[in-house]
Specification:
Elements: E1 5-8, H1 22-25, E2 41-46, H2 54-64, E3 71-74, H3 93-103, E4 107-111, H4 121-131, E5 140-145, H5 153-165, E6 169-170, E7 176-177, H6 194-214, E8 219-222
Helix pairs in contact: 2-6
Bound molecules: flavin mononucleotide.
Length: 225
Amino acid sequence: MPTPVVTTTPTRWDGAFETTASSRRNTPGPGQVAAGVTTPRILLISGSTREASTNTAALRTVAADAGSDFVAVRYQGLLDLPAFVPGTDPEPPAVLALHRQLAEVDAVLFCTPEYAGMIPGSLKNLLEWTVGNADLSDKPVAYVNVAYEGRGEAAVATLRTVLGYVGAELVEAACGRITVLQSAVGPDGLVADVDARTRLNAAARALAAHAARAVEPATTVRLEN
Ligand SMILES: Cc1cc2nc3c(=O)[nH]c(=O)nc-3n(C[C@H](O)[C@H](O)[C@H](O)COP(=O)(O)O)c2cc1C
């Protein structure tokens, strides 16, 4: 009698399967842990270079509140990136570090101010360095706009345009506005407003959940008799 075969899609936390983004993108195994349980890794990229930035504070808070649902990694190399020069070979260390950090995560969460009607030039510069390497191709991404109601809309629009150009997978369920006033940032550099903090965490968890689903292949389980 033939052995019955059952096809299942594993749930994320059952620990029975080893699933990583690398299975989809041939990258070096983001989110992979020894026990075979996958915890999504999210790179947090702030578009602000300002020391007391509200955008950076929002992402610092996401990292502080990450818990066990995802691993948060803050990107801190924006000021180290030189202006993009097509065809640079070899690429500068800061650019290689950017490629490596993007390869090591399952998703990216952006938080950026608007400067002169679009995303800051420094963030656009970062995104230009990713084009040749396809770092963001098919990578789940989301953004949170922390500006006041009615502000920052052009930053959102231009970020969406560039993310579309680089082939990122925009996770709409994790995108939105969560206003973070300067006065809502505490002396510890974290967002003190409880509601904003809860919503920031929810956005990151939605992105992590999507990234986890995106890397779960259907698995064939052979039942022994
Ligand atoms: C040079 C400059 C240009 C700006 N241009 C815009 C703009 O076009 N639209 C907008 O909504 N805010 C604009 N702002 C306001 C910033 O987006 C706002 O101060 C934001 O909170 C800065 O983010 P951060 O706190 O993370 O540094 C501008 C600020 C600066 C310094």
